[in-house]
Amino acid sequence: MKENHMNPAEAYILKQPEPYKSILLQLQAIIEAVAPDSELLFKWKIPFYYNNDIPLCFLNQSKDYVDLAFWHYEQMDKFTEHFVNANRKSIRSLRYKSVEDINDDAIVYVLEKQLEINTNPFKLILKPKRSKT
Question: Which of 54, 29, 59 has the alpha carbon at shortest distance from 42?
Fold first, then answer.
């Protein structure tokens, strides 16, 4: 049974001012079309999409743009001119200031690559501790 109250990630999206709310809703529609089994969760105070318990991407409204952020960019060979580094080591993002900026093909490509790679980026970053022998 679906509960009436809104998922905090959806609430985050709906409370953003325009044009960010429209950008986020459009991104949400594309992500859910490409990854229909993904789950929208609210982590670190921002909307995260998880697929098979693996983080797929996250959405973040900041300053005057919205970021669709993702991992594994080193395995991508298309649309890389759209990727913004934003001084983050393991993450790149597709950045939008208006709904018109949204390039569906780039998003679909990035998401399909994430699904194909299907590796938890946090497990790559957090290397297992060696047991003391």
Answer: 59
- 108 with 34: CB under 8 angstroms? yes
**For the segment 15-72, what is each residue's pLDDT rounded down to a tens digit?**
999 999 999 999 999 999 999 999 999 999 999 999 999 999 999 999 999 999 999 9
Q: How far is CA 1 from the centre of its chain?
A: 27
The rounded distance, in Å, linking the Cα atoms of 107 and 57 is 10
* CA 7 remoteness from chain centre: 17
48 three-class SS: strand
Q: What's the rounded Cα separation, in Å, for the pair 121 and 129?
A: 17
